[in-house]
Write a structure and sequence with these properties.
Layout lengths: L1 E7 L6 E8 L2 E5 L6 E2 L18 H16 L9 E5 L5 H8 L3 E6 L9 H6 L1 E4 L12 E7 L8 H11 E12 L4 H6 L13 E2 L2 H11 L3 E5 L8 H8 L14 H20 L6 E7 L2
Parallel strand pairs: 5-6, 5-8, 6-7, 8-9
Antiparallel strand pairs: 1-2, 2-3, 3-4, 4-10, 9-12, 11-12
Helix pairs in contact: 4-6, 7-8
């Protein structure tokens, strides 16, 4: 490891070190909290040309599983005020709207996908980056972001805004790629989370906990869910053999989507046997 004297960890302040995971990919990693930063000039990793590189079918599965998880975390009172950061097409927010909750969303419009028309009419939506958009003057019961905090330029600003906007007994919930996943060390620059050129950092449980405490949260819980990003290991394996520079990446190939669907049960088995390979970090934060 080579110490990068010019770069300090944005989470804990330690000097970052170079981590060469392949001849074409060098990441900056903190030796203390294992936080990872990515510079595309040093780690392009055969990335696709667009932030969107998923599948509408697999996204519906993710939405269903994530909604089940969020429903278990919702405060008991109703209706709730719910804010989603990076709402995309608005699929999840719409589900909360239909259930009678007041919904708000912030979107940087990175995905270039259509937003649900009902959500446009009945939700309160803001467009722009988190650094440039003022949070609504509300006290929210739930604030969440699904695979969004790895994209923002200044997560410290995001976490502080979330803490200030959270009401009494409220909860913040994030899913993000896990920088401690053994999949990164195994697949190296073929790790599917590196395919997205807008993934500029990967949190560890320690680094995100440190940053959330600094932002004012008093309770932070982290975990690695078995059910998120179910195609990641399969797509990472396939990227070993496919040097993909298409706009939408490896999943632009219909045949690969079929392979994913067939092999998902195998992924569950592998993740059950070897939890460290799970690719997602789950974060639940509260303030008192």
């Amino acid at each position: 490891m080579h110490t990068n004297a010019k770069e300090r960890c944005e989470a804990c302040g330690a000097r970052m070190t170079d981590w060469r995971i392949s001849p074409d990919c060098v990441l900056s990693r903190c030796p203390d909290c294992f936080h990872i930063k990515r510079d595309l000039q040093r780690c392009y990793a055969h990335a696709r040309k667009h932030a969107w590189g998923g599948s509408s079918f697999f996204d519906k599965i993710r939405t269903y599983l994530t909604m089940r998880r969020l429903n278990g975390l919702l405060p008991g009172k109703k209706p709730l005020k719910i804010l989603e950061i990076g709402f995309g097409s608005g699929r999840m927010l719409l589900k909360f709207l239909v259930r009678g909750h007041a919904v708000y969303g912030i979107e940087a419009e990175m995905l270039e996908i259509d937003i649900n028309e009902r959500l446009k009419k009945e939700g309160t939506l803001y467009f722009g980056t988190i650094e440039n958009v003022d949070f609504p003057e509300e006290e929210f019961d739930v604030i969440y972001g699904i695979h969004v905090i790895e994209h923002v330029e200044n997560p410290e600003t995001l976490f502080k805004k979330c803490c200030e906007a959270l009401g009494k007994d409220g909860v913040v919930y994030f899913l993000t790629p896990n920088g401690m996943s053994k999949g990164l060390a195994l697949f190296k620059d073929a790790w599917w989370n590196l395919e997205d050129p807008t993934h500029i950092r990967f949190f560890s449980d320690k680094s995100v906990t440190t940053m959330l405490h600094k932002a004012g949260f008093t309770s932070v819980e982290t975990g690695s869910p078995i059910w998120d990003s179910l195609t990641l290991e399969i797509n990472s394996m396939l990227r070993y053999f496919i040097q993909n520079s298409k706009k939408h990446g490896v999943l632009e190939n219909t045949g690969i989507k079929i392979i994913d669907a067939v092999l998902i049960p195998t992924v569950f088995v592998i993740r059950s046997i070897y939890p460290p390979i799970r690719p997602t970090l789950e974060i639940i934060a509260k303030k008192t």
